[in-house]
Amino acid sequence: MGRFFRSLVGEYAIVIYAALLLAVALTWPTLRYPLHTLPQDVWDPSRQAWQIAWAGHILLTDPARLWQSNAFFPLTDSFAYGNSLLGYAPFGMIGEGPLPAVLRYNILFVLAHALLAIGGYALVRQLGAGRTGAAVAAVAFAYAPWRLAQEGHLDIISAGGIPLALAMLARGHGWSLRRGLRPARRSAGWALAGWLVATWQVSLGFSLGGPFLLVLGLVLVVLLVGVPIRRLRRPAERPVLGWRLLLADLFGPLVLAGVSYLIAIPYLRAPATGPAATEIAFFSPPLRSLLIGPAESRIWGAPHEVPRSSLNWPAEMGLLPGFVLYALAFAGLAFSIWTLRQRLLLLVALAGTIVLTLGTNFYEGRWTYLPLFGHLPGSLGLRIPGRLMVWATLLLAILAAGAVAEFVRRAEHLSEQRIPPWPGPWLRLATFVPMALVLVEGWNATAHPVVPAQPTAMRTVSGPMLVLPSAALTDQTVMLWSTTRFQPMVNGSGGFGAARQAELRGKVATFPDAASIEYLRSLNVDRVLLLRSQSAGTSWERAGDIPVDALGIRREDIDDAVVFHLR
C-alpha cells in the first residue's frame, strides 16, 4: 500500500499531473463549453467526433460492419475515407448523440496534448537528459507553433504515442543515448508495452502511423544486425536479449504488423484520388515554411500573415517549430550533455527529416519522399509531407534538451562551489526560463465556434436518406447529427468520396424533380430530409414549397423540416 501511495507522488506521476494541467491551460477555452464548441472549426472536428462515435457504436452492436459506416450510402468501406481513429473507439462506447460526441472529442483533444508532453518527457528522460531538460523538450514537442494549424485534426494532434512507444522500447532494451546499452536494466514487459503502444498509435491513422512504421522497421533492423555483431565481439558478455525479451520482440512486431495489415485492407480498396506525385507536389512546403507560423499562433499569427499568404496551402504550411526551440537546438550543437558524435548523428537525422518534410521541393522528391511514399494509395493519407514535421520537432527537442541539461549541470556545479550556496535557487530558477519562453511561443489563438444544434428530425427520421442542403463542409455536421440513430444516409464528407459526392450534389441540385427522384431511387434512398433553417441561400431554398403530387412522392412537415418519402 505504501508503494502505491509513493507512486502517486513519484516523478512520472508529477509529470502526468503537470501535463494534464498544461494541456487544459494551453488548449483553453476547449473545456470552457465542452458540450457546445469545437476547436478551430466545426467541420473536420464534427466528422472526427462522428468517427469515434461510429467506431464505439458499431463495435458494440455489429463489429463485422465496422468499415461500412452509415455515411456515404451506399458506398462500401466508407469508414476508411479518412484516418479511422480506431484507437479511440473505447471512448465512443460511452454515450450517444451529438452532445456526448462533442464532449468526448474535446476531452480527447485535451488528453492528446497531455500525451504529447508525457511521451516527449519519457523519451528524452530515457535517452539520458535530466528532469529540466526533459521537461523543456516535452513542452517544446507538445506545443510547437506549427501544431496550432492542426488543431482541427485530432488524428494529427494524437502523436503522443510515438515518443512514448520509443521510450518504452528503449527502456525495455536497457538502452540510453547517454549511457549506451545496459543489459542489466532490460525489461521484456516494457518492450512489449512499447510495441503495444506503437500498435495503438498506428490504429489512429496512417498519416502519422505510416512513417512511424518505417522508423520501427529501422529499429528492428538495428536489433537484427546489431545484436549478433555485439555477441560476436563480446562473447563473454551477458546476452543482449534474454528469452523473455526475445519473445517480446517477436510477439510485439507480429501484433503490430497484423493489426496494421487488417486496418490497411479497406484503405487499399478505397478509390484513387489522382496521381500521387501531383498531390504530393501541391502539398509540399517550401523551405521558408519552417520559419512561418500558422494563423492560430497568438505570437506569430499576425506578424507572419504576409509570408503565410504566399504559400500554396497556408493551412498546413506554417511549419515553424518555434524560434526558441531553434535557438536551444542550435546551442545544443556546441553545448550539450550529448557527445559530439551523438550531436552530429542527431543533426544528420534532422537534416534528413527536413528534406523529407519538403516533399518534392527537394530535387523534386525523386530520391527522398516519392520513393518512400509516392507509390502508396492516397487513402493512407501520406500525401502531405509537412506532417513529417512531428519528427523534425522531436529531434530539435532532443538537441535542445542536451543544451538545457548541460546548463543545469553547470549551474548545480557552480552553486556547490560557493559557501554558502546562495546563488543555487536563482540559478535553478534561470533553468526554467527556456520552458517559459517555449510555453509563450505555443500560446494559441484558436477559434472555438459553437456547434449547430441537432435538428429534431435527425432524431426521428429513418434511412436510407439524403439530408438537404448538402455541401462538402456542412455534410460533416450532418454526420455528427446522425450519431443519435446512425441511420444510413447519402451524405458524407472528407477523405476519398469527394468526387462521388460532388456528382451526387450536382444531380440532386434541382430536387424535387423527376430526374433527381429517379436518381435517388436508383441509390435505394427512401427519404429526403430538407432542413428549412439550413437551406436559405442554397438551390434547395424553395424545395419545401414545390407541389409533389405529380412526382409520385409524399411530403411530410416535421417542425422546421420537410420529409419527402420517395417510396
UniProtKB/TrEMBL annotation:
It comes from Paractinoplanes bogorensis. It comes from the Bacteria. The lineage of its organism: Bacteria, Bacillati, Actinomycetota, Actinomycetes, Micromonosporales. The chain crosses the membrane at residues 12-31, 103-124, 129-146, 152-170, 190-206, 212-229, 241-264, 318-337, 344-363, 388-408. Keywords: Membrane, Transmembrane, Transmembrane helix. The keyword DNA repair does not apply. This is YfhO family protein.
